[in-house]
Structure formats: structure tokens, C-alpha cells
Design goal:
The protein has three domains: 56 residues, Beta Barrel (OB fold (Dihydrolipoamide Acetyltransferase, E2P)); 107 residues, OB fold (Dihydrolipoamide Acetyltransferase, E2P) (Beta Barrel); 157 residues, 3-Layer(aba) Sandwich (Rossmann fold). It is built from seven helices and 22 strands. 21% of the residues lie in helices and 34% in strands. The protein binds S-adenosylmethionine. The site of S-adenosylmethionine (SAM) has 18 residues, from α4 and β17.
Length: 401
């Protein structure tokens, strides 16, 4: 079948006999033969069996693990085409789900390779690797081309030790500091590898990697990084942006959109990444976050930077919203939950800065905002995740009346 266009999730879309086929590994303009993996009523999820007419935008991927490790689904596509398709996917979703016609926005690229400051490896039979997407295939990793080179080196050193009994190895880094996090179901001796910090997490929950009881084996148990003039401490279990270069672009854009004013609220604030940037321009600032360890660190980060911010440990749905001039939200992939969206729409801030890593839930939430007389004043995409179909959206909504 002919692939018409690229859509959310990184699939190529084709049609046959009134049915839609979503094809992983196929690109717009190609003629492909497919293998159906999952059959549903109106749509079938497929993989490529044979490419009859390939896209001119294909290239040879630089990584030997491409196709088997489960990451980097677009590494065999020219980088310019990756950017073009991300913009197309954004406008397509906004058109279909948010019911709004937008010109393709600017997309800001970042370094193509070795950009990630965090990696979550699985450990199987003492070997370090990744599990392929939607499969139980374990792939031992020689070199990963999207994580920073020092993370690859730490993995190589860890490989020399006996890793039996560990489920995961997470490695994170900041400017000049590296942290290894070993995850195991039981307390056990941890290999002494050459990182500034070593942490053991005792975690029985197979669904969440970075969780559980924490024991600091070496170092002080947190990373520190300065971005756009603010110093952040990042504890082992807390979310932090995985691409520092992209993170600086994001926070500059959020600060520009938020502007200056009196009262600002940052929902899903993590360790205060955006909150502390914008706190320099607002008189009263609050941040809301559900992870207790992130809130402790957010408060410490405010103190470190001499900024006065009120961080509240709560689910956003349980936080009582009052009048704010500006509200920022940067939710997980699931987007803004219904209760939180209703509360935002009830207090109707003049400006709403929405940061999202999921185009489908962003489009769904945009629809709600647009129905309630918000207008998209500006939007940019930031390519935080080159070689994959993922990207980040930063947008400014303004209340019309
Ligand atoms: C995409 S991260 C953004 C964090 C922060 N804005 C940053 O850039 O570092 C989403 C954050 O929302 C938090 N979170 C998830 N569900 C939440 C909820 N229902 N209420 C409050 N925070 C939540 C997560 O712990 C995580 O820190």
C-alpha cells in the first residue's frame, strides 16, 4: 500500500478497502507490503514486510542496534525529514483533534546524537541492554548513539562487574558529575564503579524503574546543573529534562511566554525547572508537584538560588486553584487530567503556558481550551528527542475575553 502521511506515534498511514493501516517503519510516499500485528475494527497496526518504493529521505542508520533495541525508531530518516514530519504531525493532530487550522510552527533542532543525560538500562543474566519495544526481546547494548559518551563509558565499566541479581542500571549526569543507580529487588552489595555518586534502589515494582527505597552508597546522592542562570539539584528519583541543550531552549521560551507579573502558578513543576526561571519575573510564585522527593529538592533549589517560591506537594487535581495571572502546565504524557482542566477553566488565567511531550493529549486539551475561548497566540516545537518520533511542544494560550 501507499503511505499517505506520517501520524502521531511515528506511524506511516495507509488505506485499503476503507480500513486504516498504521505502519511502523514506513515513511510518507513509500509503497510497502505490510505484516498486520494487531487487527482492530477500523484500524490495523502493522510492521513493514517489504519496501517496494522507498522514500528518498531514507538513510543508513549509524547504530548497529537500530531496529532491534526498541529506541530511535526514525534513525533511518534524514534529520531534516524528521523535523519536517514532526511539524506535519503537529498540524495534522491540531487539525483533526483540536479542530484548529495552524500553519506548521517553527521546530528548533538540537544535537542529533549523544544528547541524553540519563539512560535506563535493563540487566538480564548479568548483561546490560534494552528490551525491544512491545516485546520481551533483550538486546545487549554495545554503544547507544543518543546517550552522552560518558554514560556509554560508565556502562562499559559496569559490564566488567558481576551484575547478577540487579534488574536495572540507570545512569545520570550533570556538568562534571555522574551518578549510577542500581536497582534490585533486595538489598545487596553494589559494584564500586568510577562515578561521583552510587545509589541503590530496592524496588519490587516491575512497572516503574526508578522507584523504591533509596540507599546512598557513594557521594552526596544528587546531581547539580546550572541552566540559564539557575542552579538545580536533581535527586536520583526525580524527573528532570533528559536533553540539557533542549531544556535551555524550552525554559527560555516558557519565560518569554510567561512574561512579567504578579501571580504565577506552575503545575507539574518537578524540582522547579520552569518555576525558578520565571520566579525572577513574578512577585508571587507557586509550584505544585506530586512527587515528595521532587518537592523537597524544589524547596532546596529555591533556597540555593535565593528565590522565594511556595512549593506544594499535591496532585494538581487536589490543589485548590485561585486567581493567577499566568498558569504554566507541563504534565506527563497523559496530559492534563479532567479535574485539573476544569479548575483551570474555572479560574480562567489570562495566560496559559502549556508544555507537552505528547501531541495527542496536547491536541485533546487544546480543544477544551479553544472551546472555552482561549486562543493559541504562539507555539514552537523543540526537538528534544532526535532519532525518535517524539518532540516537545511549548505553547502560549491567551484568554479572549
Ligand atoms: C513532564 S514532568 C515536568 C516536570 C518539570 N516541569 C520539569 O520540566 O522538570 C511532569 C511532572 O509532573 C509530576 N506529576 C505527575 N502527575 C502529577 C499529578 N497528578 N499532580 C502533580 N504532579 C504530577 C511528575 O512527578 C513530574 O515531575
Amino acid at each position: 500500500m501507499k503511505i499517505e502521511k506520517m501520524i502521531a506515534g511515528g506511524y506511516g498511514l495507509g488505506r485499503k478497502d476503507g480500513k486504516i493501516y498504521l505502519v511502523k517503519g514506513a515513511y510518507a510516499g513509500e509503497d510497502v507490503e505490510v505484516e498486520v500485528e494487531k487487527q482492530m475494527k477500523d484500524v490495523a497496526f502493522c510492521t513493514v514486510k517489504k519496501i517496494d518504493i522507498p522514500s528518498q529521505k531514507r538513510r543508513i542508520p549509524i547504530c548497529s542496534h537500530f531496529g532491534s533495541c526498541g529506541g530511535c525508531d526514525w534513525m533511518d530518516l534524514e534529520y531534516e525529514a524528521q523535523l519536517e514530519y514532526k511539524r506535519d504531525i503537529f498540524t495534522d493532530q491540531m487539525n483533526h483533534i483540536a479542530k484548529v487550522d495552524l500553519l506548521p510552527p517553527q521546530i528548533i533542532p538540537t544535537s542529533q546524537y549523544f544528547y541524553r543525560n540519563k539512560v535506563e538500562f535493563s540487566i538480564k543474566d548479568g548483561k546490560i541492554g534494552y528490551f525491544g519495544k512491545n516485546s520481551h526481546n533483550f538486546v545487549e547494548i554495545d554503544k547507544c548513539h543518543i546517550i552522552s559518551n560518558d554514560l556509554n563509558e560508565i556502562k562499559d565499566e559496569a559490564k566488567k562487574h558481576n551484575l547478577n541479581g540487579f534488574d536495572h542500571l540507570v545512569i545520570r549526569k550533570s556538568e562534571g558529575r555522574k551518578m549510577a543507580i542500581f536497582i534490585s529487588k533486595i538489598f545487596q552489595r553494589v559494584p564500586d564503579i568510577n562515578t561521583d555518586d552510587i545509589v541503590l534502589l530496592v524496588n519490587k515494582n516491575p512497572h516503574v524503574v526508578v522507584a523504591g527505597h533509596q540507599k546512598i552508597i557513594k557521594g552526596n546522592g544528587y546531581l547539580e546543573i546550572e541552566l540559564n542562570g539557575i542552579t538545580y539539584r536533581i535527586p536520583p528519583k526525580s524527573f528532570f529534562q533528559v536533553n540539557y541543550e533542549g531544556a535551555e531552549i524550552l525554559s527560555s521560551k516558557v519565560s518569554e511566554y510567561a512574561g512579567k507579573g504578579e501571580n504565577l502558578l506552575d503545575l507539574y513543576c518537578g524540582v522547579g525547572f520552569f518555576t525558578l526561571q520565571v520566579a525572577r519575573n513574578f512577585a508571587h510564585v507557586k509550584g505544585v508537584e506530586s512527587s515528595p522527593s521532587s518537592v523537597i529538592e524544589a524547596r532546596e533549589n529555591a533556597r540555593l538560588n535565593g528565590l522565594n517560591v511556595d512549593f506544594i506537594n499535591s496532585k494538581t487535581s487536589q490543589f485548590e486553584l485561585s486567581n493567577f495571572d499566568v498558569v504554566i502546565a507541563d504534565p506527563p504524557r497523559s496530559g492534563i487530567d479532567k479535574e485539573t482542566m476544569n479548575a483551570i477553566l474555572k479560574v480562567r488565567p489570562k495566560k496559559f503556558v502549556y508544555v507537552s511531550c505528547d501531541v495527542s493529549t496536547f491536541a485533546r486539551d487544546s480543544y477544551e481550551l479553544i472551546q472555552r475561548r482561549y486562543k493559541i497566540k504562539d507555539v514552537v516545537l523543540v526537538d528534544l528527542f532526535p532519532q525518535t518520533h517524539h518532540f516537545e511542544i511549548v505553547s502560549l494560550f491567551e484568554r479572549e475575553v
